[in-house]
Amino acid sequence: MSDAMSNAARYRARRDAGESAEAEPENDAPMVLNSQNKAEFVETAIQLAIRRGEFDNLPGAGKPLEGLGTHHDPDWWIRRKIETENLSGLGPPALMLRVEDRELDGELDQLGREDDVRGVLEDFNRRVIEARRQLLGGPPVVTQPRDVEAEVRAWRERRASRHPDAGAEATTDAEPRRRWWRR
């Protein structure tokens, strides 16, 4: 702490304690702050704030912290922040790809065109291969790239089982169907 900052802090502490602002310390030599003096100064400031009642009626006073659980987790605060802020996409690529691999079939089932399915699968495979090439450390990438043709066939089968009439429309033809009024 610089001398000006410490002098200002001492002035505020004396003013808050009700002493005269012009009252000087007993000796004229400037006080050198070391770790012991700083600790005493901070403790004095805290005690003065307690006496003024600045710590009364704070939210959650006297209550245990919620969601800590029974086991020790050093990253509890960041997990809670991720949950409260509803953040996603955070973490090492190996773990994010595992999560995405688990949810990929559901994502593919929401798509309506085969070209879109192929695009999502090619993007997924590209990111898996890219994550394997990086040497950043962290957990190993154990996620396998997906076979695009096999996944497209599986997507067609799932789509045909859900919508029996949609199976014929899902395939991409070289020439789109023409309406009878457009010849």
Automatic annotation (TrEMBL):
Pfam families: DJC28_CD. Residues 174-183 have a biased composition (Basic and acidic residues). Residues 1-36, 158-183 are annotated as: Disordered. Residues 42-108 form the DnaJ homologue subfamily C member 28 conserved domain. It comes from the Bacteria. This is DUF1992 domain-containing protein.
